[in-house]
Write a sequence for this structure.
């Protein structure tokens, strides 16, 4: 009997180990674990049948050097078969049908990666990176993987207007998008608080619109505002550099040039672009906005020089971005100024427009004509639907998913970005234990739970669902570490919602795989949000709670403190369930082996205020 138990537990351990050895995010469509391992050793040949794969051979070599410590990478010119320790990259449109798909076979003796396109090979390599263990032993488990994305649009928006980030940092962000098999980088470049793209024809966009004389640093718009000059912009050369870098990672960069709202910075530089020479809101001269929120100062719809300006701007923008799409914003444009503006009212009369919503629609249509004439497609936030939608526009649904549903039924393409699930500037846990963020609540599990296809979409409607995108607005995100804290690991959830088949979604399994992913992030020095330990409580008759804490950080320990304000490295390590009496407060945090510390959570929770 004893032996029987021993064998059972041995088998159990083997099964558990086998499960945990492969940990890929986003989870592939088909993943079969095989027997044995491929041992990269010190010498490896990377063989490509096609010359177009040369950059990917390079990429694969780098990958094995960095992740598996292989010193000697050889690249035989001819695709010789049967080499020892070889990685074969092959374009094969018989084996793989999907443009972005791949098939990956790791055996004891070789690795074969097939795809229809270089892009597919690239994604296969991203998976391969994750098959190389983070620990010392670099044996790669034998697998058969067949994979392709669920959606064509897998994106993230980065707002570089509220706060600016260096070109180098943006490139690292692009690396991470690619690593997660995301393929769209929506770059938010113009705002009330700053204009960030060099436009040669309008130098005051650089000298005036790119700078503000202060910044709101706290939640209070009146009190929490400093008077430190802040700003800058990306030169056209830098923009080109970013776009080319992204293209090398199969990422399309979509610029956003906001209109008619969120345009105070441009108006400050060129006040004739507004309905009034002074601010509609304050009656004072226009000034690049220091505080967050929505401004009533927007571009005038009755003034033709506004359209000349925007067309000039887009002409330069289109030369910089080969993207199929131009995002024109279109969100949060209050019509107060238009209602009082004789030119706007005159325009409405001339064009037979019933109200300001129709004027907004007319504004967007006019710009869309220009964009389409240049062979580009327009994307706008869902407000572009107010007052009528043009047939070609792609709708970016952010207030929820209803507009997206409606647009798909009208035959318009749709991208889903509801703030309730996909706004990474929102809180990841209750605000009491987190750094300052925008008021939304979008913890990891909420992001993961998002289903881009609205239940009321027919198959025909769903053909217009391009995919989903997470947005990172940077009002309160001013530093690189905080940026990373907000993006990781929510980007992992985003990757899985947009890439993996719906049937493969499983939060518990994702959380397990994530623990390995966090170790990879440690290697890359990414300041991700460390998951707070999970608490479960049971109560006995005198209300004493027995507390169990589970570490989800992938490594390290959980520490706790009873009736003390702080949990520190000196606090006791959690080893067994704790008894917390009525009136006592328990605080606890994860201390992974990277030397960092998670947010400190507490028990009991205060009753929520209604
Ligand atoms: C709404 S989402 C905005 C942004 C803000 C954001 C804050 C959207 C189209 N507009 O201007 O930064 O809320 O989360």
């Amino acid at each position: 009997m004893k032996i029987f138990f021993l064998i059972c537990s041995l088998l159990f351990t083997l099964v558990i180990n086998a499960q945990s050895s492969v940990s890929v995010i986003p989870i592939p469509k088909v993943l079969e674990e095989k027997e044995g391992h491929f041992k990269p050793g010190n010498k490896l040949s990377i063989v490509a049948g096609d010359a177009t794969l040369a950059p990917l051979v390079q990429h694969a070599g780098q990958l094995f050097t960095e992740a598996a410590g292989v010193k000697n990478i050889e690249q035989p010119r001819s695709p010789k078969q049967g080499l020892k320790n070889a990685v074969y990259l092959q374009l094969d449109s018989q084996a793989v049908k999907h443009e972005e798909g791949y098939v990956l076979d790791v055996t004891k003796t070789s690795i074969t990666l097939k795809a229809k396109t270089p892009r597919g090979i690239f994604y296969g390599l991203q998976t391969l990176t994750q098959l190389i263990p983070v620990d010392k032993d670099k044996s790669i488990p034998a697998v058969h993987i067949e994979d392709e994305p669920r959606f064509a649009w897998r994106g993230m928006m980065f707002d570089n207007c509220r706060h600016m980030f260096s070109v180098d940092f943006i490139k690292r962000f692009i690396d991470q998008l690619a690593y997660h098999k995301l393929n769209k980088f929506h770059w938010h470049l113009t705002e009330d608080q700053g204009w960030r793209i060099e436009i040669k024809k309008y130098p005051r966009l650089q000298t005036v619109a790119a700078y503000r004389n202060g910044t709101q640093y706290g939640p209070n718009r009146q009190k929490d505002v400093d008077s430190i000059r802040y700003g800058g912009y990306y030169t056209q050369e830098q923009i080109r550099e970013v776009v080319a870098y992204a293209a090398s990672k199969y990422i399309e960069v979509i610029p956003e040039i906001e209109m008619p709202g969120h345009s105070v910075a441009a108006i400050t530089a060129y006040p004739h672009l507004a309905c009034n020479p002074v601010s509609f809101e304050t009656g004072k001269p226009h000034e690049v906005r220091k505080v967050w929120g929505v401004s009533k100062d927007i571009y005038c719809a009755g003034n033709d020089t506004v359209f000349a300006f925007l067309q000039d701007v887009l002409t330069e923008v289109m030369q910089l971005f080969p993207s199929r799409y131009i995002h024109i914003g279109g969100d949060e444009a209050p019509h107060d100024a238009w209602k009082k503006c004789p030119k706007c009212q005159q325009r409405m009369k001339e064009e037979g427009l019933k109200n300001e919503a129709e004027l907004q629609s007319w504004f967007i249509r006019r710009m869309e004509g220009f964009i389409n004439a240049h062979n580009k497609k327009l994307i706008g936030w869902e407000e572009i639907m107010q007052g009528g939608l043009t047939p070609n526009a792609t709708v970016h649904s952010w207030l929820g998913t209803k507009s997206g549903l409606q647009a798909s039924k009208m035959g318009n393409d749709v991208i889903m970005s509801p703030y309730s699930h996909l706004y990474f500037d929102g809180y990841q846990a209750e605000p009491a234990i987190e750094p300052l963020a925008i008021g939304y609540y979008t913890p990891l599990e909420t992001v993961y739970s998002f289903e881009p296809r609205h239940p009321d979409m027919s198959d025909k409607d769903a053909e217009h669902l391009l995919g989903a995108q997470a947005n990172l607005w940077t009002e309160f995100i001013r530093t690189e570490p905080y940026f990373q804290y907000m993006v990781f690991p929510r980007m992992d959830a985003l990757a899985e919602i947009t890439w993996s088949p719906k049937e493969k979604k499983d939060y518990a399994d994702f959380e397990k795989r994530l623990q390995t992913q966090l170790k990879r992030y440690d290697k890359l020095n990414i300041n991700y949000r460390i998951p707070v330990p999970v608490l479960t409580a049971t109560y006995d008759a005198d209300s004493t709670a027995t507390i169990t804490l589970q570490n989800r950080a992938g490594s390290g320990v959980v520490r706790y403190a009873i009736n003390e304000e702080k949990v520190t490295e000196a606090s006791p390590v959690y080893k067994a369930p704790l008894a917390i009496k009525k009136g006592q407060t328990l605080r606890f945090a994860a201390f992974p082996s990277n030397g960092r510390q998670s947010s400190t959570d507490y028990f009991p929770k205060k009753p929520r205020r209604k």
